[in-house]
Every structure is written in structure tokens, then in C-alpha cells.
Amino acid sequence: MDAQSRGRADEIDPADQWVLNPQTGNYELRLDQSSQQSSARRTPSPRSATRRRTAPGTEVPGQRSRRSGGDPAPGSSRGSGGRGSGGRGPGSGSGSGDAPGGRMPSAAGRRKRKQPASRKKKALLWTGGVMAFVLVGGSVAAYAIYQHFDGNINSIDVGGAGTGGFKKDQAVNILVIGTDKRSGAGNEGYGDSGSVGHADTTFLFHVSKDRTNATALSIPRDLITDIPDCETKTEDGTKVIGGTPKTRFNESLGQEGRDPGCTMRTVKKLTGVTVDHFMMADFNAVKTMTSAVGGVEVCLAKDINDKDSKLNLPAGKHNLEGEEALAFVRTRHSVGFGGDLSRIEIQQQFLSSLIRKMKSSDTLSSPSKMWDLAEAATKALTVDSGIGKISRLRDLGMELSKVNPKNITFATVPVVDNTDKATVLLNEAKAKPLFSMIQNDTSLTEVKQKEQDAKNQQQALLKGPKAAASDVRVAVYNGSETQGAALTTLLWLQNEQGVPKSSNEGNAPAKLPKTTLQYAPNQADQARKLAEMMGLPATALKPGTEDAKGLEAMTLTLGADFKGAGVPITGPAKAPEGVQKVNADKQVCAK
User: Fold this and answer.
1) Which residue has the higher pLDDT, 563 or 312?
2) 3-state per-residue secondary structure call for 128-171
3) Angle CA(276)–CA(280)–CA(286) in degrees, nearest 5?
4) How many CA atoms lie within 13 A of 419 on its CB side?
5) Cα–Cα distance between 298 and 406 in angstroms, integer?
6) Rounded CA separation 169/209 (Å)
7) 3-state SS, residue 370
8) Which of 403, 452, 423 is nearest to 215 (CA)?
9) Is the dihedral of CA 149, 393, 375, 37 positive or negative?
10) Rounded to 5 degrees, what are φ and ψ at 555?
């Protein structure tokens, strides 16, 4: 019987019970409830536990022999029926019930706990956060020693680039960056070994407020965009790096000393989405993490022999790890149209498969795999200081692990070819609605019900007579963070919507988080018309109690949700036609 089966037979989760006694360095099987309360101070290492196996009666250096007659370690049991130190820890296939370097407490000392949670919930107790996609799959052992994993993580202070911390009752936006910096053993031979690195692979990972769905939006590295000024922190203090207009997106990292905070600011300028945190990984992340889970299954619709990425595989399904896995995600010349957009597609397929592997019982039920994965991911990971502790990553991971893979959608920012054929330009007609969906926390997978709800809400809002556009009187105030928002809205209303009786009143007395439209009962028909034109949600309409007098105008105050003149505040309920996307629960073969 293995450790997992042994725990279930006694209605006890072994993940809760194997703990390290810091006084002796020995693993002990704790069967009382108090073990959970002090778990943060203990170190269950499945791998370490296995390595501590010794023959009965053998003394381990630094560990007191059981036959020496010394005092028992604090919290340990010393009974007449104990065995030697030949037991195994969690993750071992041993039939022995001994703790590594410690003695199994007697049956009389055992106390049964309440009926345990489901196996899936138990697995979540083992898991915390490492990397955005690994977070969703389940990742760091929840009872692992914090100091050990904290020591693995590199963190960067990005100042005001992020929100400084996610909140459990709000949507979460994480920027996942794969850098092409050739750091790490065995990576010198890939391309430019002297490069400081770029934002080579970038995903904006949006997790919904209710944690039912997520969107992973790929941003092409060759997209021409504006990189804003960004503040970075150096050893000599704070430095502002000037922005660069009309340049490749991937230059938002590494070039001119830009840190991931610059990439976060660039993403906000491009999409209008405020990023909470970033997570950055190098080539080693792919190699070590895929090996930790025993490989990731991929599918090829044709034979591939790519001399650049060094991927050489026949058509069909393959389980890849290490160097082969890295070669797969770097392949582009042998798939699709042979460019970066085709590489993005196979990277999405690969990460979808990794998520499925993370969610599999084969991974969640293996303490040794979980430990290896935690070790590999935290060593390959650089994060912002807001989540630079394993405790914060664990909290984030517990939130994100609630998302079902079938409701995780990978999509790509819509683009069109540039005239130089080497870069791409934003397809604004498709990109802006897609950005709006993320801004408004609208899922790309569960859109049918939300689409109907939005339609019903809008129908109820617009029910009743509507005034002609030429009869709408409205005073526009800017309560947003966007400079000139009132003026651009005024010009849009007058020139494109036929609302001449509108005026720009400048800045509002205070900033508002949401756009509002205040109107009198006898202006309801005008309010319906303006709401229809601007795509205002029902919550934005604020009816008064007294009728307006004479030529009094309604008051429109633009809030932080303002995305641009003519862009609906509510956002579309359906993704634009032609947007490339794939769900994480489905396997797609690379072509």
C-alpha cells in the first residue's frame, strides 16, 4: 500500500500528517489536528523524505540513533512497539508506515478526523501558486516550507506599474512573459546568446471576478505599438526611461534597461486593461516544468523537421519534456504560415495541454511530482514584489485553481500585416471589442448566457419611446483618467451621432469609477436615446425625481470605465467574428 492509499484507508490525508520536526530533522506522522495549525513552520518534502531512507538501526549523520537512549524530540512518540528508521515519507511506494527517521505512533494514539473532503479538494490543499498557467493547473505544495521556495523566487519592484495586489472579490489580470534571454545551462546555443532579452512570448491572463472562466490573450511580439515612458528602479535609485512610439511590442522589455513594469504599462496602453501582477520565465521554465510532470502530450498533423528549433518528429501524438518541449514551443518555420502568429498557435496548444496535465489525477495525486513542479517553477520564475512570497503565490493559486480548463480560452490580439511583411498592425475593428470584453469581464467561453442577459437588460433599459438624436440635450463632464475625454466624446456626438445640443463642461468635480447619466423624469426619452448610442449599462442611468425646466440638459459624467468615444461602456457580449481562439480542454494538432 503506498502513502496515498495508506492515508485514505485511515480517513487521513497524508499531506496533512507528514511534518518535519525542526529540532531533529526527522519526519514524523502527526495524526492530531494541531499539525495543521503549525504546518507553515514545518517542511514536508516528499523528495527529501524518500532520500532519508536508511536500513533499520543505521544512524544517519546529524541524527540521533534510536538506540542511543537520548531524549525524544519535541512532539515525537517513543513507544515500545516502534520500528527502526527504515520508513518512507509521502510519495514513496513503500508498504511501511514509518516516518522517515521517525517512528509510527501507536494505533492507540491515533485520532480519527472528520470525514475528509473530496480527493479534488484534498489536492487543492496541496496546491498553491507558481505561474499563471501552473496556478490554474494546481501547483506548489501548500505545506511546503515557505523559506525554501521563497529562496527560489526572484522578484522585481515595478513601482506603480501594477495594482500592488489582487483582490478575491475582483477580476485578476496577470501578465505572463516568456523572455528569449539565453540564460541558464544549455541555452547558450539558441540564437543570440548575448541578448538582454525581449518580451518574446506574452499572455495577458484575465481571470473573471466569479472565477468561472479565464482568457489568455496572446500579444504578438512583432506588433507595432507605442511604448510609454516607464519608471524603473535601479541600484542608484529611480530612473524614467523614455517611451518609443511605433515600435515592436517585444522591445518593451530588456531594451534600454526596460523592466517588466514597462511591459505592463505598454499592455495597459494597448488594451486599456490594468495589470495586477507579472510573472516572467525563461527557457529553463519549459524544460524543467515539463520534466517535473512527466512530459506534456502534443499532437502534430504532419511530420516536422525544423532545423532552427531542432524539432524533428513524425506526425501523431508525442509526450514531450525537456529540450524537445522547448524545441516545440520555439518552432515556427515548419508550422502554419511559418511566422510568429503560427508559433503563437502551437504555444497556446502546448500550454492548454500543460494545464490539462496539471489538472490530471496523475499529477495531483503524486506528492513527488508536485514537489518537483514547485521546485522547477519557482526557480524559473521572476515575479513582481507584490507576489514575491510563496504565501502570496499560494493565495493567488488557490483563487485561480477554481477555473475549469473548459472555460479557459486562448485568443490572439487581432492584427493585419504591415507593408514591410515583417511586423503586424493592430486590427482595431476586431481588437477594440475584444479588449472591451476583457475590460468588462466578459467570458469568451460562456458568452451565450451573458449575451442573452445583456440583451434582456438592454431591451428593458431601452423599452419606451426614444427622442430623436437632434433633441438630446446633454452636458459632458470628464471624470475619467483620460485627458480630453469630454472633448472627444462631444465631437463624436455632434459629428457622428447628430447630437448638436451637447456641450463640453470640462473636468468633473471628482473622479468617478463608473460613467453616469443623470436625467429628469421628463428627459427619459432622451436618456434612452443616449444610452442606446453610447452602450450605457442600466446601472449608469441615474433618474431624478423632479422634471427638468426649460432647456436644462442631462448630465453625462465619464468615469474610469470610459474607453474612448464611440466605444460601448458595457462592451460586447460576443467576440468579433474571425478572432483566433482555442479552449484549454481541447487538443488541437499543429499543422
Assistant:
1) 312
2) CCCCHHHHHHCCCCCCCCHHHHHHHCEEECCHHHCCCCCCCCCC
3) 135
4) 0
5) 18
6) 6
7) helix
8) 403
9) positive
10) -115, 115
CB atoms near residue 103 (< 10 Å): 23
3-state secondary structure of 355: helix
Amino acid at site 590: A
Q: How far apart are CA 591 and CA 588, in angstroms?
A: 9
Residue with the bigger pLDDT between 574 and 66: it is 574
What does the block give as the cell for 218? 496572446
Strand partners, 502: 474
What are the residues whose beta carbons fall under 8 Å from the beta carbon of 191, sequence distance 6 or more? 180, 182
95-104, 115-124, 562-571, 573-582 — most confident range: 562-571
Q: What is the pLDDT of residues 404-462, one digit of tens each?
A: 888 899 999 999 999 998 999 999 889 988 998 898 888 887 555 555 565 555 556 66
SS (H, E, C) 258-327: CCHHHHHHHHHHHHCCCCCEEEEECHHHHHHHHHHCCCEEEEECCCEEECCCCEEECCEEEEECHHHHHH
Higher pLDDT, 409 or 363: 409
pLDDT for 425 equals: 97
User: pLDDT tens digits for 260-272?
Assistant: 999 999 999 999 9
pLDDT, tens only, 465-479: 999 999 999 999 999
Hey, what amino acid is at 32? D
Contact between 360 and 331 (Cβ < 8 Å):
no
pTM exceeds 0.70, yes or no: no
Could you tell me how many residues make up the chain?
591
Cell numbers describing residue 472: 438630446
Q: Cell numbers 516516518 label which residue?
A: 99
Tell me how far apart the alpha carbons of residues 102 and 125 are, in angstroms, rounded to a whole number: 24
For residue 423, the model assigns a pLDDT of 95
Please state, rounded to an integer, the average pLDDT across all residues of the chain.
Answer: 76
